[in-house]
């Protein structure tokens, strides 16, 4: 694998990892809010917004990579098995 492909795959993997982390955070915060029991409502909303921003950022990065580097279309993503 050449450097360009290696670097692109690294960027895609990082974005996929960030997306998975944000989705996990949102799921935890929305479905199990008791897990943050010592925090205020403001903390909860800040954490929700932070996770949503992380998700949007990761999706944007993946979309941008796929738009400008078509060779990534063959790269395994979260939808492939």
Task: Describe how the helices and strands are arranged.
Layout (H helix, E strand, L loop, with lengths): L2 H29 L9 H28 L13
Structure description:
The chain has 81 residues and is mainly α. The chain has a domain at 10-26 and 41-75. The chain has two helices and no strands. The protein has helices at 3-31, 41-68. Helix 1 (3-31) packs antiparallel against helix 2.
Q: What structural keywords apply?
A:
81 residues, mainly alpha
Q: Please provide the count of β strands.
A: 0
Task: Calculate the mean pLDDT score and round it.
Answer: 86
The largest sheet, given as strand count, sense and whether it forms a barrel, is: none
Approximate strand percentage: under 5%
Terminal Cα separation, in Å? Answer: 22 Å
The dominant shape is elongated
Count of helical segments?
2
**Uncertain segments:** none
> Quaternary status of these chains?
single chain
Q: Helix content range of the residues, please?
A: over 70%
Summarize this entry quickly.
This protein is mostly helical. Helix content is 70%, strand content 0%. The protein is built from 2 helices and no strands.
């Amino acid at each position: 694998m050449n450097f360009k492909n290696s670097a692109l795959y690294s960027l895609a993997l990082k974005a996929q990892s960030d997306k998975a982390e944000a989705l996990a955070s949102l799921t935890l915060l929305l479905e199990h809010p008791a897990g943050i029991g010592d925090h205020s409502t403001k903390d909860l909303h800040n954490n929700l917004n932070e996770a949503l921003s992380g998700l949007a950022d990761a999706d944007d990065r993946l979309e941008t990579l796929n738009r400008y580097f078509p060779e990534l279309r063959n790269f395994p993503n979260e939808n492939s098995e």
